[in-house]
Amino acid sequence: MSYSVNWITQLVSIPDTDLTLVSGTHYRLNMFTFLIEIRRLEANDGLWAPQIVEHTNPKINFAGADYAGFDKIINGYKIIFTGNLTRVDLIGSNNNIADIFISNGVSVVPSNSAGLQKVSIGSGVTPQDVIDIAVKSRDVLLSTENYP
Amino acid sequence: MAVYLRNASAGSAVTAFLSQFKIAADGDITYVAGADTFHVWWLHRALQKLAWDFAISGDDEINLTKPNPSTSEAIGTIITLKDWAADYAISYNITDEVATYLFGGSVEQGASGAVTRYSGLIVLGSVNTSTNLQVIQNGALLTSHWGSGKNQIDSSTLLSILIKTHDTGVEIDNSIVNVKANTWGDSFAIWQTTLGLGEKVAAINTASDPQNDTLQATVKAYSIVKSEGYKLIDVDGAGDKPFVGEWSYGSYNKKALHEFVKSILVYNTAETIHGIDGDLWTGRLFDCVITPGAGGDLWVQNETITWPGGEGQLVAVDNVADDTATRIVIHLNKGIAPANADVLSGTAASQIVSSTPDSITTNPNLLGVFTGTAWIGATGIGFAPGELGNVDSVTDLNGNVLSPPNNVNIQVTVETGLAGDDPHVFLAKKHATNNAPDYAVYTGTNQTAGAGTLIINEAISSDTPQSGQVLVKTTGQSTAEFYDYTSWAGSTFALSGTLNNNITNGDDVFPAILYTSATGGGTSKLASNSLIYSSDIDVTGWVRHGDPATPDKPVPISGTIGTAGLSLTVVLDDES
Q: What is the pTM of this model?
């Protein structure tokens, strides 16, 4: 692998030679391969520096299915793909690379799956919230607020 | 076996004595058979009984026709066997063997100028466990005929025997003996006494040593190295002070060192200390100021030194060259201590003592007292300064009591999944406000690649590890560069290598407390360092194992280095 990390500017550079060619300028990045290499770098040149990736293990054989893990780029690091490429497919984990990569004409296609999501309906304000807000508003008006 | 005390029944004591020994017509008193022991009074009384008898009986060939065999003084504790060789060809005398059956006083015999004296020695006190007391005379162990005790006439008497102190007119080692108790597991004890007429006391007391509970064979296998000779050691940060030895427990601990040194001095040891058999170590050290000699000769560590009236071992000399040596410490093996103006002579070198030597207060354990956590070092005993803390107390050869700073250990134990794992540990001072390491503790000065030192603009904090790694965010580099340093002083780190790149004034510099692999043979690995504690230090960092074959999740670590240091344990978890 020839990933390089500028630990000062917090930029991870991944060359096309470390990607799997799909066709033409279309490449694929196996996220487990990515994780392995990042971990190696974190424990060597970057031992002093904050961690790059927060990884959540896959959930294997959960109710009859294997659920992919999560890779979250943290601590302000950015990713850049270098070389002659226009598209990179990310496979193997849910990740936030699409949010933090530096766009240099490369399209990043994450394969994140969110078949079941936790969402709030409407405004998300519950009846209890309404009561609490009313009480606080009254206290403020009466100058009797008592914040914890 | 009966013990006939001074107040025993006269009839039975005299009868038993005459049964056990032969008193020949020429005055020779020899052992025949029996295991009873007798107060010296019964030697006198038995002889007087024979000299009162009209007829001889059996192997007792003395009767009223013979001259007076003996006299008694000091309530029967000083017995003198009379010499009538000139007029009667009779000289009453006992043999060394007979003396082993006597106690409670002295027996003197022989003609004037050729007197042989057996002096009484009584050892009082108590011992924790059955102890084979050792008696050292004239630089040698006396052959024991007392085992773990003899003639214990009451609960406070450990031993009561006779010791030959004059032999045919020649005094043996100034009548001095040293009594030692050095049983494994107990505290050690040494007592010197000068014997004479009658009976003299040596006091020996031992107790269980709670810091000496390891099997002796286990301790003897420790890879601790003996430390001997003159050492200059800075134990308190205030400059070098003179010591004898610089003892280090290395990869063990204080208790291990305490036990290791006891294993050198234990009963029946085969080890030596300063060239002396551990059994013969009496701790009689003398600190001599000596006048520089003519030059050309060298003192040799642990060599035997002589002077008028005495012999000893070279324990320490401040310079082996005889034209520059000014101070020498000797262990008195036999005779008397050197005096002012005595000439000390070694194998090659010799120098003159220029003042009355000082007797050094020593400890039977050699190193001093170990409380379980702290040393109270014996005078002049040196320890590796990095292994001392502010709980310890050491005393240099000059008698100055020194208080070491508080060296505390920081250790991170990493439990890995595989014995072959190589976890890397980073730990540094925490940033004042951010929950992160402080990456800008100091700033570097302009320096050129290849330099063997790293110089910063600020003074290095006293609680920086004395050795370890320092990192620099060198301008133009993509990562912080780390350098191993072996020491530091002022604003300078002494590197074990050289700078890889130029450093620009203002580059961030930060020393790590740990920046290393955790090592160990099994799945439990350890990374450690030490520093001098002055106030609490908040630290943070992580453990990472990035082996591509078996990576583990990074684990953050944090804590506070306090007066007892810091110990953290991390369990790595597979990442998949």
A: 0.69
